[in-house]
Amino acid sequence: MSKRRYLTGKEVQAMMQAVCYGATGARDYCLILLAYRHGMRISELLDLHYQDLDLNEGRINIRRLKNGFSTVHPLRFDEREAVERWTQERANWKGADRT
Question: What superkingdom heads the lineage (predicted)?
Fold first, then answer.
């Protein structure tokens, strides 16, 4: 019997609900949502820059590190909302303008 190497949708939902109560809840929720929906590896998630997000057009540019191809994905409404919440919260972080 092989071991399962992925999270179920239910497990991801539980993680997203749990992080909402932390100091960085909006950020963590957003990152988990994007990673899950777009099949991002942790290295791709960490390489994500705000410039990779186009909220007006509803797109995200993901630099795929394994095969070297960048891909553009549509953002769903709830993903856009999560990014906007994170952006508003992030504006209050010390040093956020330098990252």
Answer: Bacteria
